[in-house]
């Protein structure tokens, strides 16, 4: 069994659904933190989903982020299983950055 810490980072330059992290095969991931910051001086929102095959689970639906603010989305660790995908969507392009701190266990 091996433990590896990874950091997934995105600058959300579009309003398209964007993959933040994909859990590898034969791996379980513990997402310790998802931080979102707004850097344009305009309040915005972010949507975060977890995809398992064809099923999509909403984790945060249009979560507000204040102008020039930073929000920690998780209040407890999130378990992501093999092949599951964390995806994020910004309401407006070029305003939000996302950083996830993840422990992968193989």
Please describe what this structure looks like.
This protein has no helices and 9 strands. With 106 residues, the protein is mainly β. It has one domain (3-105): Nucleoplasmin core domain (Jelly Rolls, Sandwich). The radius of gyration is 14 Å and the shape is globular.
Largest sheet, described in full?
Answer: 5 strands, antiparallel
Distance between termini?
5 Å
Class by SSE composition = mainly beta
Helix/strand order, N-terminal first? EEEEEEEEE
Give the tally of structural domains: 1
By DSSP (H or I, 4+ residues per run), the number of helices equals 0
- Global Rg: 14 Å
Give the helix level as a range of percent.
under 10%
The CATH level-2 architecture is identified as Sandwich
Q: What layout of secondary structure does this protein have?
A:
Blueprint lengths: L2 E10 L5 E5 L5 E11 L5 E9 L2 E11 L4 E3 L5 E3 L4 E6 L5 E10 L1
Antiparallel strand pairs: 1-9, 2-8, 3-6, 3-7, 3-9, 4-5, 4-8
What key phrases describe this protein's structure?
106 residues; mainly beta; Jelly Rolls; five-stranded antiparallel β-sheet; globular
Give a short synopsis of this structure.
The chain is mainly beta. The protein has no helices and nine strands. The chain is globular, with a radius of gyration of 14 Å.
